[in-house]
Design a protein that fits this description.
The complex is a heterodimer.
Chain A lengths: L14 E3 L2 H5 L12 H14 L2
Chain B lengths: L6 H9 L5 H9 L6 H9 L3 E8 L12 E5 L2 E8 L3 E6 L2 E6 H7 E10 L8 H32 L6 H24 L5 H7 L6 H7 L4 E2 L3 E2 H18 L4 H26 L4 H19 L12 H30 L1
Antiparallel strand pairs in B: 1-6, 2-3, 2-6, 3-4, 4-5, 7-8
Helix pairs in contact in B: 6-9, 6-11, 9-12, 10-11
Classes of the chains: A mainly alpha, B alpha+beta.
């Protein structure tokens, strides 16, 4: 086992901390999410056309 | 990179927090609400404080020191490295690297940042680690005992005098392995070795065949269970009661018509090839040639009551296995 990492707190300028209720709306899976580069490629055009 | 495909195990590993996969995965499995809030509460048990943010200016993601969780349209991913142009993350245990621009299209702007204390660790880590060690050792001891018994019985029964008997042991072991993989597949237990073998003739062929009605004998017994019972009983009988060899040969002869039906079904009805099933058929024929070459088949006549005992052993093990399968399935669904 490697040593515990020291993660510095970032200084955001335009970020909002999520409330417990908002965090409860984001589902977590037991297993890993499968997100391959190919899947991202497929998502890319859809997202771009959705932009105004 | 971690050895499993569990989100918490890989995340704790990336954070460098001492933990055991078994305990961590069990805690996630028993979470009443599997949400980001629940996950952050679970991390607190390890001495890890977590905060979730929505980044309005998405470019601020480069300010975060990995590892952290990023929420995408398909779920959470563990980000392991980030630069102004590229991002690396773990997708089902596999490290992936894509351009940051591309990643932005899948990411919804939400992140979970974790700040472990310097003494962060799993509760009762030493005890859990010890249990994990003994669980692993148990498997090795079991394998060593099985190997020792196999060699001991092979020598004490005098089977090493016959080349055909030696080959029969090896082929039965191969058949046992193939049917073990098939049983795992029918129980939907993921095994990379099974997927590798199955992909030789047709990717996904094994799963397709195992989903058909024909994969069950009278709709009750999976052919994988029948095969596992056949090879295990044959192997044990061969080692413990080598005098039964002629009747083992006769039973093998009775199984051969099944191989024609299986190949015909895959070729003309299902139009799919199950590599593991084909391997089992090939194993049955290899056994037949060994029995024939060793002269064991010709000694099967006149028939004796021994064959009834052998038949009862095959049937008993098959029924026992059939009774165990729902229990394994129930246990598996409870765990997932």
């Amino acid at each position: 086992m490697n040593t515990v990492k020291n993660i510095p707190r970032p200084e955001f300028t335009s970020s909002r901390r999520l409330t417990p209720m908002e965090m409860n709306n984001i589902r977590c899976q037991k297993r890993h999410t499968v997100l391959t580069p190919e899947q991202i490629e497929k998502l890319a055009p859809t997202s771009k056309t959705a932009e105004p | 990179m971690s050895h499993t495909h569990s989100l918490i195990d890989d995340y704790l590993f990336a954070l460098g927090v001492p933990h055991t996969a078994g305990y961590s995965e069990d805690r996630v499995a028993n979470m009443p609400f599997r949400t980001l809030f629940g996950f952050s509460k679970l991390l607190e048990e390890y001495g890890i404080h977590s905060e979730a943010y929505n980044l309005e200016d998405r470019n601020e993601i480069t300010k975060i020191t990995p590892p952290f969780l990023a929420n995408t349209s398909v779920g959470e991913v563990i980000v392991t490295a980030i630069s102004p142009t590229q991002i690396s993350y773990i997708s089902e245990g596999t490290p992936e690297t894509v351009s940051l621009e591309r990643f932005m299209t899948a990411w919804d702007g939400n992140v979970l940042l974790s700040f472990p204390d310097s003494d962060a660790a799993e509760p009762k880590y030493a005890l859990h680690k010890r249990i994990e060690f003994f669980m692993t050792a148990k498997k090795w001891v079991l394998s060593a005992c099985a190997l020792f018994l196999l060699v001991f019985l092979y020598i004490s029964s005098g089977l090493y005098h016959y080349i055909s008997a030696t080959l029969l042991i090896l082929i039965n072991l191969a058949g046992l392995y193939f049917t073990y993989l098939l049983v795992q597949k029918s129980l939907k237990i993921h095994n990379p070795a099974a997927d590798h073998v199955c992909g030789i003739l047709q990717v996904g062929g094994c799963d397709s065949i195992l989903e058909t009605d024909a994969s069950k004998f009278f709709g009750l017994f999976g052919w994988s269970e029948v095969g596992f019972a056949y090879f295990s009983v044959s192997l044990i009988t061969l080692l413990l009661l080598p005098d039964m060899l002629p009747w083992l040969a006769l039973c093998n002869l009775c199984c051969l018509p099944f191989s024609f039906w299986s190949i015909w079904y895959q070729r003309f009805r299902a139009h799919k090839w199950c590599t593991l099933c084909v391997c089992v058929q090939a194993t049955l024929w290899l056994l037949f040639f060994c029995y024939l070459g060793g002269g064991w088949l010709s000694q099967a006549w006149p028939l004796s009551t021994n064959i009834l005992a052998l038949g009862a052993a095959y049937l008993g093990v098959m029924l026992g296995l059939n009774a165990l399968m729902p229990l394994i399935e129930n246990n598996k669904s409870t765990q997932s």
